[in-house]
Amino acid sequence: MKAIDANGTYKVFGKRPDKAVERLRAGATREELRKEGTTAAVIDASFEVEEGEIFVVMGLSGSGKSTLIRMVNGLWEPTAGELQVYGEDIVKMDQQQLRRTRREKVSMVFQHFALLPHRTVGENAAYGLQIQGIGKDEQQKRAKEALRLVGLKGWEDSLPGQLSGGMRQRVGLARALAAGTNIMLMDEAFSALDPLIKREMQDQLVDLQSKLGKTILFITHDLNEAMRLGDRIAMMRDGRIVQIGTSEDILNNPANDFVAQFVQDVDRSRVLTASSVMAPPVALVGAEQGPLAVHKLMRENQTSRLFVVNRDRTLAGAVDEERVVAAAKEGAKTLEGILDTTVVSVPANARLSDLLWLSANSPKALAVVDDDNTVVGVIARVTLLQALAQVRAEHASALEEVVSA
């Protein structure tokens, strides 16, 4: 079951919204309705959010992204279509069911913190639990643990006015965590923070999500933030979702000119991953093989270095031709003594920007491994430099197009 599932969802403000939806389905434009005093905030939105996923909705002001998240929270009722939270349709819920959904399934983190100024940090973190009718001891226990998770242990008795902006936002995050809901909605949650604190909060959110497995629907107008946080991203324009995909999908295969123009200034080295530029290893050597067999494999594949793997294909090291030949001449039967165990390995999802320092300090090729330390690819230094050169060339080309337009 999907955590969130939207199918043909509309939200129209103004007179006769149902009639407006009919006109939109028949081909009327958002601008035509606007001139008549009707605002089509969300138009035919369809998307799914998997459990445990960070799903980012990205768009400029007025694109409909904040309206979308408020419908998921039940604050605004969809005009048409389906919008399900764990299989229950928001459209068909009465007020009691909506309140239960907000208490038990969905919590919200706001842009401007929304803290109660005369309540302590601990009381603010426990506020959602108080609304649910949870006992005071349990409130304090869960609030204290949530504050610990966001790095505010020891601040329970402070007032919000004594905290920095970043710390106040951590209290808002703790309140959502303490509520114990599986889904967290975050509407421009970090946009009011300065860049350094914003990056710290992004890091903390990713860390918390990996530990707790929360489903997060994150709204932002900042494309770099979307690319950094999102497992998948929905790009919105004028009320419509124009593309859904991973960061690499959107960068490499923009759905239209709007998306292409939007992503042209993104630092691709901070988005593209090792898996996007790696080459498959020409051959892998079993750790039990001897120098003669390894040298034969090197000649057949015209390479002077091969990765050595264990029987389960996990990385054991690498061997170089010069040492293999010397060992074969000495009659060695194993790779003992010539195996280079200092091979630098990187995860397949590592960003290219993170590989630069590693490659600069390791003249040999990098091994790309999956979560089980299984070798899935190789990145030679020249491959990495070529990829980065292509990134810069594409960026320069995009700038030239903008200048000449």
From TrEMBL:
Gene3D superfamilies given in the database record: CBS-domain, P-loop containing nucleotide triphosphate hydrolases
Single GO MF descriptor: ATP binding
Domain ABC transporter span(s) in chain numbering: 24-263
Pfam (any one): ABC_tran
GO BP term (any one): glycine betaine transport
UniProt keyword list: Amino-acid transport, ATP-binding, CBS domain, Nucleotide-binding, Transport
Assigned protein family: Belongs to the ABC transporter superfamily.
Protein name, per record: Glycine betaine ABC transporter (ATP-binding protein)
Lineage: Bacteria, Bacillati, Actinomycetota, Actinomycetes, Micrococcales
